């Protein structure tokens, strides 16, 4: 069983990953999203951007392989919600995506993500500003207003865990109309 919070988190991800807003997740959405996110941190190096674009491609491949129940080559909201039923099928994909995204937020490679880079990346994905700020605060930024890359990556992994509630990632669904 998935928690209500987990279901809300998954619904939000669907609405954001449907980047062109046509009601289905398709390859074109991942291209839009990938380009937007890769451009969010101009100081990031090409290898980090390529890694993220690769993670987005794998994400799509996994979705269409695991969730396209009716075989029409696109993922409907109903198909997507099944992601919470078999989380182990998505572990490797989410792992890769979490590490690639969090690493992109650390262009100088010191193991930390600053608030401006965090906000830029999460805004590019489509989350709302107050939620992004609340999430960053929930990660417990240090005196330099930074969070560890690993803390953010772990937060992304938790976000996809159907049994979890009361996690930092729940700040992303608070007060959203999606
Ligand atoms: Ca779409
Ligand atoms: Ca489908």
From TrEMBL:
Domain called EF-hand: residue spans: 5-40, 55-90, 93-128
Pfam families named in the record: EF-hand_5, EF-hand_7
Domain of life: Bacteria
Full protein name: EF-hand domain-containing protein
